[in-house]
Amino acid sequence: MKRLEFIVNPVAGIGGKVGLKGSDGEEILKKALELGAVRESGKKALVAMNILKEAEADIEVFTWPGEMGGDICRKAGIDAHVRGSITPGATTLEDTVRAAREMSALGLDLILFTGGDGTARNIMDAVGTDTTVLGIPAGCKIHSGVYALNPKTAGKLLVQYAQGKVKETKLAEVMDIDETQFRNGVVQAKLYGYLKIPNESKMIQNLKSGRGFSETASVEMLSHYVADEMKDGILYLIGTGSTTASIMQKLGLPNTLLGVDAVYNRKVVASDCTEKELLELTENYPKVKIIVTVIGGQGYVFGRGNQQISAEVIKRVGKENIIIAASRGKILSLFGSTLHVDTGNEEVNQMLCGYYRVIVGYEDMMMLPMRDV
Amino acid sequence: MAKVNVRKNFQQARWNEPMIYELSTPGLRGIIPPAVEDEIESRVGDVAAKLPESLKRKTAPGLPEVAQKQVLQHYIHLSQETMGANLTNDISEGTCTMKYNPRLCETLIGNPGFADIHPDQDEDTVQGMLKIYYDFEKVVKEVSGLDKFSLQPGGGNHAVYTAASVIRAYHEANGELEQRNEIITTIFSHPCDAACPATAGFKVITIWPDQNGMPDYEAIKAAANEHTAAIFMTNPEDIGIYNVHADKIVEAIHAVGGLCFYDQANANAFLGVARAKEAGFDMCHFNVHKTFGTPHGGEGPACGAFGVRKELAKFLPVPTVEYDGEKYYLDYDKPESIGKVRQYIGQSAVVLKAYTWSMMMGADGLRECAEISVLNNNYMLHLMEQIPGVSHAFQGNGIVRQEQIRYSFEELKEKYDIGSDDMNCRMGDYGIPWFWSSHHPWVIPEPMTLEPCESYTKEDIEEYAKVVEIVAGEAAENPGLLKNAPYHTGMHRRIQEEDLDNPEKWAVTWKAYKRKHGVK
Amino acid sequence: MSRKQFVHPYIPNSEPAVKKQMLEAIGMESVEEIYKGIPEHLRFKGTMELPEPIVSEYRCQRHVEGLLAKNKNAKENICFLGGGTWNHYVPSVVDTIMERDEFLTCYVGEAYTDHGKFQALFESSSMLADLTGFEACNTPTYDWANAIAIACRMAERMTGRKEILVAGNMDPDRLLVVRNYCKPEMTVTKVGYNKETGCMDLEDLRRKLSADTASVYFENPIYVGALEVNAAEICRLAHEAGATAMVGVDPTSLGILEAPAVYGADYAVGDLQPLGLHMSYGAGLGGFICTKDEKEFLGEYPSLLFGVCKTQQDGEYGFGEVYYERTSYASREKGKDFIGTTTALHGIAAAVYMALMGPQGFQELGEGILKRVAYVKEELVKIPGISLPVTGCSYCDFMVDFNKTGKTVKEINRALLEYDIIGGKDMSREFPEYGQSALYSVTEVHTKEDLQALFGALKAICV
Q1: Residues A180 and A278 both lie in one domain
Q2: Which residues contact C20 (CB under 8 A, 6 or more apart)?
Q3: Torsion over CA: A76, A79, A80, A85 (sign)
C-alpha cells in the first residue's frame, strides 16, 4: 500500500493559451482570467487520475479540497482523504506550498502534483529532496525533469509505482526561466535545484544488442571514470548538478549540489564558491580543470547553471581543461542538436566552440560539437 | 501496385506445448545407448562402482523421462512455433541479411566426409576440408581486396573482437600500446564496434552523424590524435547511407598512426562493387553466416571472416590454412599471433556452406546479389514512402539509399501511442517474423530496419509493405488492437513482465521455476 | 558464361522484365543510379578472380562431394580422437530437428513469433542445469573455451579480483582463448599438476591462491585423461581464499560423475558437442555456463538468459529475457563483454539429445564408457613398449605412452591409417613432458571389434 498526496495547482498553464507566458504573479493571473483563460490543469490531472484508478487497491490518497484535488479524485472515482481548506476560484501559490509542506509532514510515500516549472519550484521549496514526488505536466513552461512526458505516462508510471514495480528513485532537475525576461521573448532557463522522482528503468526487449543501461547506471559508470582519472597536482572545479555530485560521492567528498566546489589532491579545498573565489583559486593553483555536466534538456554546459563559473573563470582555465560528463541518455536526447554555451561573453563563447569528448560511461565518450547560441 | 496478396487469415501453429518435463513418466526413455559386450563386462566389472566416493553421482539428474515419439513430436511442435527465414517473408531483419539458405548446403554437411571428421585429424586426412578453407579464403580476399584472412571467429562480433585483439598486438609490438588506448567508432556502426574494443581494453569515442546522416568527418578529425589505436566503422551504417568520406577518414586515422577496421556486416550490397582495399582499410570482416547464404540458426552457429593487409597477417589467430603447392597444411608458426579466439579452426560447417554457395554464384552472381539487393531496397522504400505514419532516418536528404533503411513509427507513437514493439507484435499476426527495430540506443525513434535482400520477389516486397500499411492503419483506427497483439502467433502478449526482473520470481530453468512458483 | 543468359534460382528479381518494372517504379534507368551514392574513386573497377560458377546444383553437389571424399572419416575408419570433440552417436531424432528450416533459418527474433525456439532453449538450459546440479544456465557461447573465458570475467566482476588460476593440465588451446580474452585487465596463472596422476598439485594451488584470486579453473574429466579426485578440495581451498571455483566438465559424464554444484563449484562450464552434435571438423561446438540462481551470479552473465513469463492467455508459458539490466553499479569493468551470434541451434540439439537420454541414458552411457576405457587400458599395456603415463580412472580420454616403442606418435598414426584407424592425438607439442604420448578417446560408438582392431594394429606396428 502506497500513501500518495495529490495536489493540483489549478492555475498552472493558464497563461499559455491566452499568449501569456506563465501564470506566476497575481497580476498575470488576473490578466489571464480577464482574457478568458480556462483552468486546464484540472483536466490534465484527471487524465492521470483516471489511469491511477486501476491501482486503487494499492493506494491511499490524501488531497486538498475542490479544484486543488478533491474534485478531481471524485470525478476519477478515487476515494481520498481531503484535508485543509481553500477559497475556491482564488487559490494561490501559497496554497500549493502549504499543502505540500503540511502533507510532507505526514510522511507520505509520494507527492503527485500538477503544474509547470513554477509549481515544481514551489514544491521544491516546500519538501526539498526528502519526499519522492512526480509532476503531471500542465504548465506553460516545462523545462524541469520532474515531470512525466504527459498526463497519460504520469498515470501509467504511478500505477507501476503503486504496485511496487518501480522502486528506484533519482534526482531530477528543477529548471525555470526568468519569467520577466521570458515575456520579453528571452528564454533563459536556470537550474534551481532538484526533486526526487521515481526512476522507471526502460524495459525494452532487445535481444541482439545486449544489455542496456539505465540512467542511474550510466551516471555511476561515468562518475567512476571521472574520479579514477583525476590526478594529483591539479585543482578541479566541480560544477553544479547531480551528475557532478555523483562524481564527488565516488571521491568520498562532500558536495554542494547547486554550488561549485574545488578539489585538490582528492580533498575539498573550497565549497560553494562564488565567482570571486573561483578567480582567486585560479590564481593560486597552477593547473586548473573544470568538471561540468549538461544542464537541462537543451544541451547547455555554461550559462544555465554553473553561473559562478563565469566567462572570466573559463578564460583563465582554458578550453582544453574543460571536462564534460553527462549520462548517455541525456546526451542522446540531444541527438540532432549540439552542446550550447551562453556565458554572456561573446569572445569566450567563441573560444568554447568546437568538439568535446563528453564522458558518458567508464572509458566511454561521445564527440559533440559545442555551438554558441 | 497490382493486387497484393496478404495473409489475412494467418495462424501460426500454437500447440500450447507443455514443458518437456511435464511429459515425463518415470521409467520411459527416448533412446538406449549401445551396451558393453559381455566379454568387456566380465573383464572389467562395474567400473563406476570403483570410482572414488567423492566423484560418484549420488542423485540422478532430474532430467525428463520421455519415449522417443513424444520427444520428436514435442520438438517438431516447438519448431512449428518458430518463423524461419526459409519459410517466411523475412525482409524484417535489417542489418542481418536474411536471405535464402540453400538446402543443398544442408545435404552436404550430412556427408560423412564432413560430419564424421575430427578436427584433430592429421592434415593428410583432411585435405578436402583444408582446400575448402583455402579456397573460401580466396573468395573473401577477392571480395575485400585484402591479403590474408582468418576464418576462426565464431561470428561477426567475434571477428570484430579479433580485430581489436590484433590492433592491441600491433601497437604492443610497436611499443605504443600504453599510449594508444583509444578507439573511435560511429553511432550508427554496430554496437560491437564499440563493445569489442572495450572488451579488449580500449577507451571508446563515439562519433555522431552530420546533418546528412554520415559520420561527422570534422568530429573524427578532432577525435584522432596520438592516443588513437584505431577506428572501427560500419559502412554503410545501418541507415543505408554510403559514407562518401570513407577514404578521407582512413587517411585521417593513418595520419595519426592508427589502424582502420571496416565492419562489413552490411557487405551484401557491395559484392564486387566497392571493397575495403580501395578505401584504404587495414582490416575488415564479413559475416559468413549472412552474406554468404548460410543459415542463422536463431543465433548461430556462425562464422566471421576476419581479413588484414599482409603487414598484419603475423598477428592473426593460429593456425592459418596454407598451401605449399602440393598439400594444404595448418600453420601454427606465428610467434606474434594473438593466440586463439575459438577452438580448432572455426565454424567449418558455415565455411563449407559458404564455399558451396560462392561456387554456385561466381563473380557475376555475387555482383548480381549486390545489384538486386539495392534495387529491392529502393523499391521497398518507394512503397513504404506512401504509407501514412511511416518515415525514415534522414528522410529527404537527397542521398540514394543502398541495401537497407531504418524506418520510424514516430508519428504513430505521438498520435496513437503505437511504437515499434506494438507494430511488431501485430505484424506477426500476418505471418511476418519479428522485425529488427534497431540497436540500442534507439537514436531514431520507434525504429524498424528492413533489408530486402536478393532472395525476395517483387511480390514479397509488396506483401511486406502492404502488411505495414494495414497495421499502421489499424494503429490509427484501433490502437488497442495493437496493444494486445499478437493473436495469431505461438504466444500471446506477456503480462507481469516485471517478474523477469524479480529474483524471487524469475526462472531461467525449470528447476528454478518449480521452486519459485510452487509447481510440484 | 555470360550472366545475362539465365535468372539465378536464388535471385528472382534479376528476371529482366521484373527488374525493369521495379526500376521504372523508382524512376531509374539502371541500378548504377543507385550506386551513384558511392564516390567513383571508391568503386571497384576490376573483376573478382573467382572460378566460373557451377550453376547447376547437381554439379555443385558433385564438386563438393568430391572434395569431401578426400577426407578420411570416422564412418569408414575407426576414430580414436577426442579431447574436445568426441565421436558419440547422434540420434536420428536430433538430426531431424536440426534440419527443420524453422529452427535452422530463424533469426534472434522474439518469443511472440519464435515461441518454440525460446521454449527449446529454455528447456536446454534447464536440462544442462539438471546435469550440473545448478539452477541457472545461459544460452550457448561459441565453445567451451569461450565459456571459460566469459565465466572468468564474470568472476572478476563479482569478486573485484584480477587473477585467474588455471590447472596446468587443461587443454592448451582452450587456454590460448582464455588468455586472449582476459587481456588486458586480468592475469592468468597456471597451477602445477602431478604428472603421474594428472591431477592438480594442491600444494602449488595453496601457494598461488591469494587475495587477488578471482577464480580457480580446473577440468573434470581432465584434458590429459584423468579424473580430478581432489575436485571438492580445490573448491574448498578456493573458497577459503575468498575466490570462486570453476570446473570444466564433459556433460555426458554427469550421469555417473558427481554434479559440480554438489562438490562446491560456483561455475560449471563445458561443451555441447558431445550432446548430439556431429564432430564435423570442429563445427559441433557450443559452450555453456551454469551457476547458482542468485542475483550476484545472474547479474554478471553477458549472454541472453531466457525465463518464463505469464501471458494474457492463462496457463500459457511465455518467454522473455531475465534481469534485463544486469548492472552492478560498483564495477568499473561492467559492460565490457560483447554478445552476438553464437551457437543457439546447438543448444536446441543438446535439448533434444538430453530429452532422449533421460537419467537412465546418461547413466548407462557413462558406465559403458568407463568400462570400455578400462578394458582398452588393460589390453594396451599388454603390448610391449606401450604404457599408460597417467594412472587412475578415465572417462573417454586417456593418454597412451609410446616412448618405449622407439616410434613417434606421428609415425604410429600414419601406420594406423593403413588399418583404417585414426589414432589418438599427438600430445608431444602440447605436453612435451609426456614425450611421445597420444590422447586416445573411447566412447559408446566403439565396439569390441573396433577396440580389438586397434590392439591388433598397434601390436603389428609397435612390436
Answers
A1: no
A2: none
A3: positive
Which is it for strands A267-270 and A300-302: parallel, antiparallel or unpaired?
Answer: unpaired
What does DSSP assign to residue C355?
A: H
Q: Could you tell me if residue A94 is inside a domain?
A: yes
Which residues of chain B lie closer than 8 angstroms to A335, CB-CB?
208, 443
Same domain, yes or no, for A121 and A240? Answer: no
Nearest CA in chain A to C338: A210
Q: Cβ–Cβ contacts within 10 Å for residue A184, how many?
A: 9
Higher pLDDT, A256 or B165: B165
In this prediction, residue B507 has a pLDDT band, given cuts at 50, 70 and 90, of: very high
Could you give the maximum distance between any two Cα atoms of chain A, in Å? 66
Residue B349: pLDDT above 50? yes
At residue A179, the 3 state secondary structure works out as: helix
Decide if B157 and C339 are in contact by the 8 Å CB cutoff: yes
Contact partners, residue B69, CB within 8 Å, separation at least 6: none
Rounded to an integer, the average pLDDT of B245-269 is 96
Whether A120 and A232 share a structural domain: no
Minimum-distance CB partner of B155 among C321, C341, C366: C341
A230 falls within a domain: yes
Last residue of a domain, one of A171, A198, A225: A198
SS3 A343: coil
What is the pLDDT at residue C1?
41
> How close does chain B come to C75, measured CA to CA in Å?
6
Mean pLDDT of the region B183-197 = 92
Backbone angles phi, psi at B185, to 5 degrees: -145, 175
Q: Are residues A187 and A233 in the same domain?
A: no
Give CA–CA dist B474/B482, Å, rounded.
Answer: 7
Q: Per CB distance under 8 Å, which residues of B are interface residues toward A?
A: 187, 191, 194-195, 198, 202-208, 216, 218-220, 222-223, 417, 421, 436-437, 439-441, 443, 497-498, 501
Same domain, A20 and A98: yes
What are the cell numbers at B26? 518415470
Series of mean pLDDT values for 10-residue runs along chain A (373 residues): 87 59 62 61 86 89 89 91 82 82 84 87 87 84 78 85 83 78 65 85 46 76 95 96 93 91 97 94 96 85 86 96 92 86 89 96 94 74
Name residue, grid cell 602449488: C204
Spatial contact of C422 and B118, defined as CB atoms under 8 Å apart: yes
Domain containing A299 equals: 215-372
pLDDT of residue A208: 47
Q: Is residue A15 part of a domain?
A: yes
Q: How far apart are CA B172 and CA B231, in angstroms?
A: 17
Predicted local confidence at residue A24, as pLDDT: 61
DSSP run (H or E) holding A228: helix A215-229
pLDDT of residue C235: 98
User: What's the rounded Cα separation, in Å, for the pair A113 and A9?
Assistant: 7
Q: Which structural domains are found in chain C, ordered by start?
A: 3-62 (no CATH), 78-88+360-462 (3.90.1150.10), 92-353 (3.40.640.10)
Amino acid at A72: I
Position C104 scores a pLDDT of 97
| CB spacing of C91 vs B31 below 8 angstroms | yes
Domains of chain B: residue spans and CATH = 121-359 (3.40.640.10), 496-520 (no CATH)
The answer, yes or no, to whether the previous bond of A151 is cis (omega within 30 of 0) is no
Domains: count for chain A: 2
In terms of DSSP bridges, do strands A288-292 and A235-238 run parallel, antiparallel, or are they unpaired?
parallel
* H helix or E strand, kind and range, residue A268: strand A267-270
SS3 B233: strand
Which parts of chain C sit beneath pLDDT 70? 1-5, 327-335
DSSP3 helix / strand / coil % (chain A, rounded to 5): 35, 25, 40
Coil, strand or helix at C248 = strand
- Claim to verify: residue A22 and residue A145 sit in the same structural domain: yes
